[in-house]
Amino acid sequence: MSRKRLPLLLIVLPCFGYTDCDYYNTVVVPDTDTSDPVLATRMWLDGVEVLRFGYASEEAETIFVVPAIYDAGGARTLEFNQTAIVYCHNSSVQPELGQLVYIDYQPKTTSQSGGPGSVVSNGMYLFGDVTDLSNTGNCAAGFDLVDVTYNWTITGTDMAGNDAEPFHGSIVYTP
What we know:
Elements: H1 5-11, E1 26-28, E2 38-45, E3 48-52, E4 56-59, E5 62-70, E6 75-90, E7 97-104, E8 108-111, E9 119-121, E10 123-125, E11 131-132, E12 144-158, E13 167-173
Parallel strand pairs: 4-13
Antiparallel strand pairs: 1-9, 2-3, 2-5, 5-10, 5-11, 6-7, 6-8, 6-12, 12-13
């Protein structure tokens, strides 16, 4: 996907959430809720939309990851952590050398307050960082980029304190 088309993608991005989206509704928090919330990841990988409800392993150069939580009794928190690992290699020296660069993105969190009888949203989402993995890290002089692995982890809780089954995913770019 060209860099010129990436901003257009963000402008026409269908709503997946915060708490005021067509996909979510307001609900009254029940007195008891024993069901766990559901986590999902909506992604655009080189401009192609993908939706996952569990572990994801994908390949792409340009990525945009949007995690979400849904619970019929109300979603309380959503947490999203992202990292990237850049692997570079220098085969012109003996012994050959490798270089790893670790990139930690700022953690993202959203939440809403409420309790039994409160009116809240049954879902929330967060925007990940739009990332061109081919330009994520700089290899040292003499080193060539081998691959970049972007990883994420999502956790969430509903209004009753039930934790969603956390899941993670990765996207690999290989030049």
